[in-house]
Amino acid sequence: MELSVFDLFKIGIGPSSSHTVGPMRAGAFLVEKLRKHGLFGRVKHIRVELFGSLASTGKGHNTDKAIVWGLLGEHPDTIDPAQEEPLYQAVVDTGSLLLGGERRIRFAPGEDLTFRENELLPFHPNGMRFTVEDAHGAELYRKVFYSIGGGFIVGNKTARDDQLTKESTRLPWDFNSGAEMLEMAHRSGLPISKMIFENERAWRSAEEIGAGLDRIHDTMQACVERGFTVRGDLPGRLRVERRAPDLYERLSRQNEGAFADPLAVLDWVGLYALAVNEENAAGGRVVTAPTNGAAGIVPAVMRYAEKFLPACNGARHRSFLLTAGAIGILYKERASISGAEVGCQGEVGVACSMAAAGLAEILGGTPEQVENAAEIGMEHNLGLTCDPVDGLVQIPCIERNAMAAVKAINAARIALYGSGHHLVSLDQVMATMKQTGLDMSSRYKETSKGGLAINITEC
Ligand code: SF4
Question: Do you find a cis peptide bond into 290, omega within 30 degrees of 0?
């Protein structure tokens, strides 16, 4: 286990972690590299090529704009969402950008960003190549990045070595599978959230961990609340209307905790997820969980627990996030969280599995019940394809989060009614998800060349 929960839960912007956050980080990272190699002062022009899925659906996911923001020196967690469009438009209007906020270079997005739809770089469907030139047009530097899901980026060498990081930190509970997680939980007598907390202590203080988890929680919930209030159509040709504000108004007419229809709680859960994913589709501030496309599920289930389950108030969100993070890291390390690699089972499926585990944990589940909840959350998302209509993270993504949030609650409840004993293990379901993803036609892996994407008539 080489990742921290803070690597998995990244504060960023919509609409896509792999197609927006990752490319933006790549642009900003390129600037850092140029400084490090002493080349920054000689740069006069940059060309960027996008490959595979980034080329197929990059326009709908703002990949081109995100790269420009990164080259300007902006970062996903700090950029002001209200400034995103003006910053990009200024580059289009002038045919130039202020590299790293300091050095004016020639860059016209229409000419210098190329979408190579039918070409792939060797290691992942989401490839980007940056070519940097000096004032004479000579090549100064060339760098390939892959955006491998959840906002993570790797270079050619890291991808070849199949390693995300070179971390050598010794963790007290260094589990790399569901089976090892359970074995260590038995040995230690600790719940999963506590083991992960002790792992995090290898990197930061207890206070920093608490504050970091609170910040993630608060950013998620601020996103839900913003989604309750902003009306209008989402960006893109589909002109999808935001539904969360109207639904919020209707549901608010009754007390959130008292219902004649006991299933009305599901309306609230769905609303929470819709609110987040509409914000995400509009390019707002969201947290990868584990990706942007699936960002509504963890906040929705966590908010459900806080609002509707009296036992789950206080700082239970920390245990929820630590447990959900542990499960997400296992998927990241053993399978994939990239829709371009394994379809939507790697995004919404993983988020459902994470949220189910988080909920089971704060409801007092044993480690076996938590692992069972995570397994159920994925088992019934196996085979889920990624086919966003018009390349936008809107249809089916927004509603799909609402459906999966409810499914996660159901998975946790089924697991908690059981003894923890079950036939299909989390490791088996993760392996199945990965295999299914590899077998899946690329048409169903974030290329918008199959499924709903070709069966919906464009407006
Ligand atoms: S269909 Fe799923 S994987 Fe594909 S963009 Fe939407 S949320 Fe992401």
Answer: yes
Please tell me the total count of domains within the chain. 2
398 alpha carbon – ligand 1 mean position (Å): 9
Determine the distance separating the centroid of ligand 1 and the alpha carbon of 332, expressed in angstroms.
Answer: 16
Instruction: Report the 10 Å Cβ neighbour count for 177.
Output: 17
Q: Looking at the predicted structure, is the pLDDT value of residue 380 above 70?
A: yes
Give the model confidence (pLDDT) of 5-40 as tens digits: 999 999 999 999 999 999 999 999 999 999 999 999
Mean pLDDT lowest for which of 137-151, 377-391, 445-459? 445-459
Residues 321 and 409 in one domain: yes
Asked, for residue 365, whether it belongs to a domain, the answer is: yes
- Are 447 and 305 found together in one domain? yes
Residue that is last in its domain, among 126, 161, 196: 161
* Whether the CB of 397 sits within 6 Å of ligand 1: yes
The answer to whether the CB of 286 is under 6 A from ligand 1 is no
Residue type, 332: K
The span from the CA of 159 to the CA of 166, in Å, is 12
CA nearest neighbour of 362 among 322, 411, 421, 407 = 322
Residue bearing the CA closest to ligand 1, atom 3: 344
Domain boundary among 105, 128, 161: 161
